[in-house]
Write a structure and sequence with these properties.
It contains 14 helices and twelve strands. It is α/β, with parallel strands linked by helices and about 500 residues long.
Length: about 500
């Protein structure tokens, strides 16, 4: 006597005759989920999806071998649920433990969620699940089903009663498709991982290239600084030499004229003392009249008063020129590249003298130079920093647009532990917020053509950093800017 399971199998799988090629066996352990409120459907599908027939009635075993081949063991692991809610729980659990279902047979008409709603919900959890919607209705609502599930390549509709070979072929095809899709997805994930790793490598390479480019730019700036300072030094040295020679000529001549002036003054005084003697002599009155006329023509009294003052002014001018020449010579330090203890206050004073032409029409300079220790440095290079900042301060004051209002440039020195701080402040227009992060970029400038190259602050910061220090600033639009140079007293640390 046949049991209920055998009867159901006979109803849905009529007797098979003849032979058919055995389909390829799916990977053992492929999981299939049956969601149906009909227990018979569960029994039938479990029977159909077994790959062997040992231990079964002979009649059924022959049929199954004809349909599915004689592979040992189970190709599919079948699980079941009686409603859509339970089916969703099964799918969620399979996703959580890493044992996903490949295929789901879902009955169209069930209590609670119907087959379409169940399909929609399980796809929210596992969109790759292959779904076979099973229905016994002759009038399938295709338009409604299509509207709800759309066009998917993992969705089929199977009508009852179905042939066992049909079911087996569908399952094998869907299982193979699911396996291929999974393999493709895995391959894609591997490729994405490789791509990600490659992107990381490229990012690291880009960062290295950026660092190398920055280092190259820094070295180029340093080279520019070196060449510029060398050129300035040679120029200043040549100018100082060329100016010193005529200054010496002028100075010697002035000393001669000063001595002659004193002699002439003594002669005039002697003449005035002897006027009475001359007047008493024969024809003295006539001679005295001629001398008085000549004295009036020469304005001797004015010359006697103004000549000493004029000589003093000339000597003062010569001293100013000599001071400028000395300042230029000390400012440049031609040929000096070694670091040595230096008096930075002296360098600041010299630089202020050299830069006077840049600020004399727009600003007054205030020096508040506190006593600071000697700093191990290259004073010629630091003088270049001071000069750039003083000239920038003068330009900032001029850019306020009020030529009648003079500004102030204040230079201060102070000690701070093992460092010294030099600050250069101006009462100019300040630095706009939009460009504050860019002022140390090479070739960036807000000045009109001919007033700036965008290299001054870059060079200044490079020099300060080479000395182991830092260059920073504080600014306020409409009120001015202060640059701070911080330098270690002992010079830069050895690399």
């Amino acid at each position: 006597m046949l049991d209920e399971r055998d009867l159901a199998l006979r109803q849905l799988a009529p007797a098979c005759s003849g032979s058919s090629p055995a389909p390829a066996t799916p990977t053992p352990g492929t999981r299939v989920l049956v969601i149906d409120d009909n227990e018979k459907i569960h029994l039938v599908l479990r029977a159909l999806l077994r790959a062997g027939g040992r231990g079964r009635p002979a009649e059924r075993g022959v049929c199954e071998r004809e349909l599915f081949g004689s592979s040992a063991g189970e190709a599919f692991v079948v699980d079941g649920a009686r409603c859509g809610e339970d089916g969703l729980k099964k799918v969620c659990g399979a996703m959580s433990d890493g044992r996903r279902f490949a295929i789901a047979f879902i009955d169209l008409c069930m209590p609670g969620w119907d087959g379409v709603e169940t399909t929609e919900r399980v796809w929210e959890v596992d969109p790759d699940l292959q779904v076979v919607l099973v229905t016994g209705s002759a009038d399938v609502p295709w338009a409604e089903i299509r509207r709800r599930v759309g066009f998917r390549d993992n969705f089929l509709v199977l009508k009852k009663p179905f042939e066992p070979v049909e079911v087996r072929q569908i399952v094998q095809a869907l299982a193979r498709k699911w396996e291929l899709n999974s393999a493709v997805a895995e391959r894609i994930n591997q490729l994405e991982d490789r791509l990600l790793a490659r992107n990381v490598e490229l990012e690291l390479l880009a960062e290295r290239l950026q660092r190398e480019a920055a280092e190259r730019a820094r070295m180029e700036v340093e080279l520019q600084v070196s060449h510029k300072l060398e050129a300035v030094g040679q120029l200043a040295s040549g100018i100082a030499h060329e100016i010193n020679t005529p200054i010496q000529y002028v100075s010697d001549s002035l000393h001669f004229l000063q001595s002659a002036s004193r002699d002439m003054r003594a002669l005039i005084e002697a003449y005035r003392a002897e006027r009475a003697v001359i007047e008493a002599a024969p024809a003295g009155a006539e001679a005295l009249a001629r001398l008085s006329e000549a004295e009036d023509a020469a304005d001797l009294e004015y010359v006697d008063e103004a000549l000493p003052k004029a000589m003093q002014r000339v000597f003062g001018g010569l001293e100013t020129v000599a001071t400028l020449v000395r300042s230029m010579n000390e400012f440049a330090h031609p040929g000096q590249r070694e670091l040595a203890p230096a008096d930075l206050r002296r360098g600041i004073e010299n630089t202020v003298t050299v830069a006077r032409n840049a600020y004399k029409y727009v600003a007054d300079v205030v020096l508040e130079l506190e006593e600071i220790p000697l700093v191990t440095s290259n004073p010629g290079e630091l003088n270049q920093v001071f000069l750039n900042l003083i000239v920038n301060a003068a330009h900032a004051i001029a850019d306020r647009g009020d030529p009648e209002l003079r500004g102030t440039i204040t230079l201060r020195t102070a000690s701070d532990g093992d460092s010294v701080v030099i600050s250069i402040s101006d009462t100019g227009c300040g630095i706009p917020q939009a460009v504050r992060d860019r002022i140390f970029e090479p070739f960036f400038t807000t000045k009109e053509v001919g007033r700036g190259t965008g290299q001054g602050l870059v060079i200044a910061r490079s020099i300060v950093q080479q000395h182991g220090g830092s260059l920073s600033f504080e600014t306020e639009c409409g009120k001015g800017t202060t640059f701070f140079i911080r330098l270690p007293v002992g010079g830069p640390e050895s690399p």
